[in-house]
Amino acid sequence: MLEQGIAELFAEGEMRAHLKRARKIYQQRRDLLCQLLRQQVGGWVAFEEPTGGMAVWTRFAETVDLTALSQRCGELGLSLGDGQLFRTPAETQASHLRLGFASLNAAELSRSVDLLGQALLPACSSLLRKCKASVMTDKNRPSRWTSHYLQTGRRGRGRAVLYLLSGCCCGPAYSPSPCPLSKTSSTATTKRPGNTPPDLPTNSNTSTKHLDRLLLRAFARENAARGCLLDLGCGPGQTTAFLASCDVPDLLGVDISPEMVKTAQALHPQLAFAVADILRLDYAAESFGSAIAFYSVVHFNYDQIRTALGETHRVLAPGGELLLGFHVGDEIVHDDEFLGEPVNVDFRLLDPDKIVPLLIETGFTLVDVLERRPYPEEYPTRRAHLWARKSALSTGYCA
Amino acid sequence: MSERCYCAADHAFAQRGAQLRRVGVDAHGLRVDEVEALCQQQPIRLLYLTPHHHYPTTVTLSAERRVRLLQLAERYDFIIMEDDYDFDFHYDGSPILPLASANRAGRVLYLGSLSKVLAPGFRVGYIVAPADIIAELAHLRVLIDH
After folding, report:
1. What is the ipTM of this complex?
2. Model confidence over A177-204: pLDDT tens digits?
3. Which CATH class is domain B7-145?
4. Is the CB of B21 inside 8 Å of chain A's CB atoms?
5. Residue of A57, A59, A95, A97 for testing the chain B interface, max B β-carbons within 10 Å
6. Nearest to B56 among A22, A51, A86 (CB)
7. Closest CB to B89 among A26, A48, A85
8. Quick check: helix, strand or coil at residue A328?
9. Beta-carbon neighbour count of residue A36 at 10 Å?
10. CATH assignment of A2-114?
11. Chain B interface includes A19 (CB < 8 A)
């Protein structure tokens, strides 16, 4: 009876039409799931887009314990396997999952990846604890730097979390077409002040950071041929990766946290990263063609910023340009809790009218000062972007 | 069978007392060189595979390996059970033709499923196989259904 009915569906062409419709829907679901995975959990999940079928075969980062992840997902209301079924005898821990997409509509896929991102946060947090530990146990540093290192350790933590939430490792960080279907993340960490990377967060309807992307693209275009572009305070490398996607052939991302540099390197193996202190750059004069410092001076006071600008000026070749991004204001925002852990950190909002004289003092010429309102999902501060240039005849800044 | 495999198939074969041997899978599908090495060690009666989108890794078995597998089946006298469970769902370009389409020697049993096409509740599938096997399966099906 059933078989006869099915045979009729074939005979009347119904089956062909049905398959055509189904194929189209499943293809859209595959595309959406892959896009969401790349955008939101790209740093933790590797996969190849399947040419067919109903599932994406994913490999999770070694640092992710799939049993624990599966359990956390269950608590959040997402059913996720623990990968044991797919573990081969040679593997010490499960690392693969088959994520089915065929039975989930767009809203359900979006919600599922949101939940997966949330469930991955503790894995992220443990990575960040490692970053912090590496900063705190670095006894070779002079003690007067301690507070600065702690702060940068904290900064690194913030960045990595935001980075995870905005998930930008597999594609350009400043995705020009954010997912049209996903929802704004409700996670509190997206509203932090401080070092919000300019791509934050892509999982929102309006979060394109339009101006930031335009500026970075323009800066990349103007400076691509000038020599190595230095990304100061690169964190996990999302801005570095975006600049690379703008066809900058020679790039170096530096950060004060060795763990952060290791993370950036793991996430972007094709790019170059190194540990460096912005206040004391261990590079010869005129080593770089241009530099950016996007929200990487937000823990510094004005004296430290003068030092940082002087160091940047020194390592830039004559005619080299600098793009600086920060929060506008005159407050110091204190933070004593982050991801459930006690911290003691200040974020400084900065006054462009005080930064501009520092640029001039350290030998730069001002090209542009741009201010914009915050985008809806950002911490509610105005943002300043300063574009400056080292004179083509400059002999360098002497501190 | 492959190293990572469709576990229901594992169980079905194991239930019938089959001794399972496994070969690896890479970006081009089942490792045919490993199949050959295995055949040289011991007689193999049947090879089960999901070549269109390998379960669970979703990789597609390359045309070259398909040809090679058919040759090996001939030389080492084994049956290929081709489980083409999601043939209808290929998005990039045309689906790859099944091994069964080049099956001149009658060595390929081809399985398809309508559960994914219609609804999971309909456990309906089909098999393309030599007449004697179909007759035997029909007999079994009658026993199961009654």
Report:
1. 0.88
2. 222 222 223 222 333 333 433 333 333 3
3. alpha beta
4. no
5. A57
6. A86
7. A26
8. strand
9. 26
10. 3.90.1150.10
11. yes
